[in-house]
Design brief:
mainly alpha, about 240 residues, transmembrane, about 5% strand, two-stranded antiparallel ribbon, ABC transporter permease, about 80% helix
Length: about 240
C-alpha cells in the first residue's frame, strides 16, 4: 500500500509535471494556431487551414514524452530539497518518484495513443507493448542520469557532461576500428539459419526471440538500482 508521504511525493511530482505539460501544450497549440491563422490570412484557403490543424495532435505526440523524460532528468535535486524540507526520507522520496514515474508514463502513453488515433489507427498489442516499454525505459534512464548528475556540483556537471559523450564517441570509434581490422577467419559465418565458426554461440544467442527481452529486463534492473543508489547518496549543496 502507498503511505501518506509516498502520496505526498507522487502528488508533488504530478503537480510539477502537469504544470510543465500544460505550459508545453499551450505553447505548441498557440504557436501552431498563430502560424496557421497567418497562413489563412494570406492565402484564404480554409481547406488548407483545416488540414493543417490535424497536424497539432501529431506534434503533441512527439513532445509529451520529451516533457516526461525531461522532468525526471532535470528535477531530482529539486524534489530532494522539497523532500528534506517536508521531513521525507530519501527512501520514501525514491519510492514516491518511482510510483509517479510509472503512473505518469502510463498516462502519457495513453494520451499519446488517443492523439495518434487522429491521424492513424492503433497498432496491435505487440506494437503497443514495445512502444510503452521504449517510453518507460527512456524515462527510467533519464531518471537514473538525473539522479547521478544531482550528486555533482556545477563544475563537475560540466566536466562529466562534456567528458562522458566524448569518451563514448572515442570508445565507439575504437570498436569500429577494431572490427574493421578483424580478419575474416576470426568471425563466424551465417549458414542454414545459424552461425558457425569462432564465437558462433555468442552470435547464435542474438537469433533467439527471448534474448532481447532478457537484455531489456537486465538493463531495467541495473537502471533502477543505479537510480536508488544515486538517490540514497543525495546531499544538500551550497551551489
Amino acid at each position: 500500500m502507498i503511505n501518506t508521504k509516498q502520496k505526498m511525493v507522487a502528488s508533488n511530482v504530478f503537480y510539477r509535471l502537469g504544470l510543465a505539460a500544460l505550459i508545453t501544450v499551450g505553447w505548441i497549440v498557440g504557436f501552431e494556431l498563430v502560424t496557421y491563422l497567418l497562413g489563412l490570412a494570406f492565402n484564404h484557403n480554409l481547406t488548407s487551414f483545416l488540414v493543417s490543424l490535424q497536424g497539432i495532435p501529431e506534434t503533441l505526440v512527439a513532445f509529451l514524452p520529451i516533457v516526461l523524460a525531461a522532468y525526471f532528468l532535470m528535477t531530482p535535486y529539486v524534489d530532494f530539497k522539497w523532500a528534506i524540507q517536508n521531513g521525507i526520507s530519501r527512501s520514501t522520496l525514491w519510492q514516491g518518484r518511482l510510483i509517479a514515474l510509472l503512473l505518469s508514463s502510463v498516462l502519457v502513453y495513453l494520451v499519446d495513443e488517443l492523439l495518434t488515433m487522429a491521424y492513424r489507427p492503433l497498432g496491435n498489442w505487440r506494437e503497443i507493448l514495445i512502444n510503452f516499454g521504449g517510453l518507460l525505459t527512456t524515462v527510467l534512464t533519464c531518471q537514473a542520469i538525473g539522479n547521478g548528475f544531482s550528486l555533482l556540483n556545477r563544475k563537475w556537471k560540466v566536466i562529466v557532461g562534456i567528458g562522458l559523450p566524448v569518451m563514448a564517441i572515442i570508445l565507439l570509434m575504437m570498436m569500429l576500428s577494431g572490427l574493421e581490422h578483424l580478419s575474416t577467419g576470426m568471425l563466424p559465418t551465417y549458414q542454414d539459419d545459424h552461425f558457425v565458426g569462432p564465437l558462433a554461440w555468442v552470435f547464435n544467442l542474438t537469433l533467439s526471440p527471448v534474448t532481447p527481452w532478457i537484455i531489456w529486463a537486465i538493463y531495467l534492473v541495473i537502471v533502477v538500482y543505479l537510480t536508488k543508489l544515486f538517490n540514497d547518496h543525495l546531499q544538500l549543496r551550497r551551489d
